[in-house]
Amino acid sequence: MTEPLSLWNHTSIRQAILDFVAEVTDEDGPNYVPPAERIATFDNDGTLWCEKPTYFQFLFAIKRLKEMAEADSGLLEQLAYKAAASGDMDYFASLYPGNAEELMQLVFDTHAGMPQAEFETLAADFLSNARHPRFGVPLKQLTYKPMIELIRYLEAHDFKVFIASAGGMSFVRPVAEEIYGIPRERVIGSNVSFETRMTEDGPVLHRKRGLVEPVDDGPGKPVNIELHIGRKPILACGNADGDIHMLWYSETSQYESLQLALHHDDAEREYAYEGASAANVFALAQERGWNVISMAKDWKEVF
Amino acid sequence: MTEPLSLWNHTSIRQAILDFVAEVTDEDGPNYVPPAERIATFDNDGTLWCEKPTYFQFLFAIKRLKEMAEADSGLLEQLAYKAAASGDMDYFASLYPGNAEELMQLVFDTHAGMPQAEFETLAADFLSNARHPRFGVPLKQLTYKPMIELIRYLEAHDFKVFIASAGGMSFVRPVAEEIYGIPRERVIGSNVSFETRMTEDGPVLHRKRGLVEPVDDGPGKPVNIELHIGRKPILACGNADGDIHMLWYSETSQYESLQLALHHDDAEREYAYEGASAANVFALAQERGWNVISMAKDWKEVF
What we know:
By secondary structure, chain A is of the alpha/beta class.
């Protein structure tokens, strides 16, 4: 029999996960949770796949801005297009997190009006072909193996595992089944709205301009979890301040719950960073007893 | 071995369903559909449960208006509260479908600001205790047995069955598991947005004022199906004009698909009606080859 969580070192984190799953699945124990209520939610960027040097979806949007500027040089008068055309990544970095809204708008509006099916094809192509500047492999290969092993382990114990990404729902869905084994209907994220246009061939969905409120980040995560799942997660996993509400929300479950926060402290195998986007989550983890995963110490492998 | 769809008479509709399911599950056949893509969507009001003399959620909202008017007589100056307090159902009937937006607004705003958990408790209590004016049983008992049998039959063939209700998502979810065997995360509907309020006990979800666009009706159904499922249904079932876009959308699947429209032609066991809310769906069914279920002829039992 294969050892469970074989890609995790024998540290307290691995033990905490094993103990939690044993506890909530023990029908005779005091903390048994019925399968229907075994909901787990995972953030995506920096939790399931790499988010450096920047979010993959930003790279996708910048590529699109560049293509649009090549097709219409008038667009170069706008800063974002100019930066994209000249490869000025610092411009985009300067927008986040201070101007996150503006950046998100840019990311989503670059594909406004497009048929939804076409957008998904572009996203899948990008994630399959664009290569990571440091690791040299297609972006979609930069998923964390121990996390995927954890997802399979949870599913084997009748958990329903959802992704709750601050990034675009439709950006992740086209590859989620292939790279995570998570079906499309279990991928939650930020999104634009769609409109149904009637054609001779029936209704066709197009992407609209503008984001659906709330963005699936921070206080928006519990909101979107309610919309898509309708139950509180008993296990939540994130890596940044945008996951704080989700982690804390899972604590308010009537059942035993487990919170996991991934710390990127592995400059050798991946990256080491905290920075503005994770300024509070680890302090809060300390305060509230959430489990902090050390990439360097707790994982045998990364990718 | 029990006969499948035993509550359905041996008519062409039952045969069409059996043939379709046999076809899409035949691994060696030309129309095989992988389990992950076997999505079925059912409307709720008038498709899975009774919608007469009016939508159950309207009764719920009217009860609330009445309670609010009893607590604050100043509200009686507004027509809706006055009508609710005096039991003037004609007033509410006059709003639909002409002023559907106003009515929906009324339905949703009556619980604005309330914690989401409290709303769900109220909804479950109402559906469990309020009795139907004609049948005298609690509203939640007025589900169509042949439809529930069909849902189980589809699930037994690895379909994922979702509810796509024009009514409130959170109104149906608290009872969906009990009365339909459908888990909360597979109930899609119209909804208000929520907000996360931070308290000493952690984040708490409250209902906001105003509907999330689009309402899950007509062209909004494919939009919400995309948001919650991300795949086209290969089987869609409805009963009114608000289901036309969903039925047609399922036709645009790359796979074989089946459309079912329930005709309420059974004044004896339930009701016989078409009226303003189903003026076009049956003509279109004729034109496009959708299957029309006759409640009177195709079902052995109703409730």
